[in-house]
Amino acid sequence: MAKKTNAKREAFQKKQEQQGKNIVMWIIGFLIALGLIFAVWTSLG
């Protein structure tokens, strides 16, 4: 029974870790996009 619980816990941890990495990548991508938009906007102004 304990092995089954540990396996579920490990699977959940792996899933959470992957989701966390995805969120970090989205945030970094969003910041880069904002930086590019800002650079274009300042060069046009």
Q: β content, as a range?
A: under 5%
Segments where pLDDT lies below 50 for 5+ residues? none
N- to C-terminal separation? 66 Å
Q: How would you describe the shape?
A: rod-shaped
Count of extended strands: 0
Radius of gyration: 20 Å
Q: What is the residue-mean pLDDT, rounded to a whole number?
A: 94
> Structural class, from helix and strand content?
mainly alpha
Instruction: State the helix count.
Output: 1
- How many strands, which pairing sense, and closed or not: the largest β-sheet? none
- N-to-C series of helices and strands: H
Percent helix, as a range, is over 70%
Walkthrough of the structure:
The protein has one helix spanning 2-44. The protein is an all-alpha fold. The longest helix is centred in the middle third of the chain and has 43 residues, at 2-44.
Provide tags for this entry.
mainly alpha, rod-shaped, 96% helix, 45 residues
